[in-house]
Amino acid sequence: MIKKSSYRRGMRIRIVDAFTDRPFHGNPAAVLLLDTGFPPDAWLQQVAVEMNLSETAFAHPLPPGGDADWALRWFTPAAEVDMCGHATLATAHVLATSGLATGLIRFSARCGVLTAETADDGTITMDFPTSSLTPVPAPAAVDHALGGPPILSVHDTADHIGDLLVELADEKTVRELEPDHAALRAFARRGVIVTAPAEDPSLGYDFVSRGFFPAFGIDEDPVTGSAHTALAPFWARRLGRTELTGLQGGARRGLVRVTLAGDRTLLTGRAVTVVDGELLAAPPGGGRAK
């Protein structure tokens, strides 16, 4: 259900740390809620460049009675992307905490209709399409860019994700990886996700991962929600469970709870707003934000 709110003078913009309950952890995303319609793409890209975060989310309400409540788009500092988990979580968090929406929120995006729902304990669960996984040979260029660690398997993911999922031997190898970002930038895919089983599952997570997307202006993404739509089926098959928790990140980390439900994957996490301010550079023709 969409609720109306009063306007502010500037274009209100927030920075939200997603997949964490503490500031300066998880993955930060900027969120700009618009009154109606999207400004020109060039302006949206300029805002994303200015914010210089892995994603900036833009959303506006849709007329009632349709398949979705809000239109949602995501931009990295380099390009628009088809799917983004952490910025969707951040947007749902802003809508819920500002009173602009309650209950189940439906987003219309380039990858289809996505939903997000906030529970009483503050966690937000998103419903995303499960990625396909196609075994492929390890590209020599990727092996070289990763520094030559032992690679156990490589899988191609669905078009909306467009990553290579690379299985490494253990958690220590994933954590100590120092890839050649310039070499990865020349690789014609969205990015590379490396993963391994947790060394000690009693610590609260079942697998680890890191994500590298230099071709999209992001050397390393701390917590990539969309990648977990591929990590969920990958580890569900190996561990024999459909409910798992992943820990992603290098220096900055976050937790993603996943539930594999056939062709859909539920992603659950928390978020916290760390910046709430005004964007004074209005789009061509003016504009307001909620």
UniProtKB/TrEMBL annotation:
Listed InterPro entries: Phenazine_PhzF-like
Stated name of the protein: Oxidoreductase
Family statement drawn from the similarity comment of this UniProt entry: Belongs to the PhzF family.
UniProt-listed Pfam families: PhzC-PhzF
Keywords for the protein's UniProt record, in alphabetical order: Isomerase
Native source species: Streptomyces spororaveus
Keyword Isomerase: yes
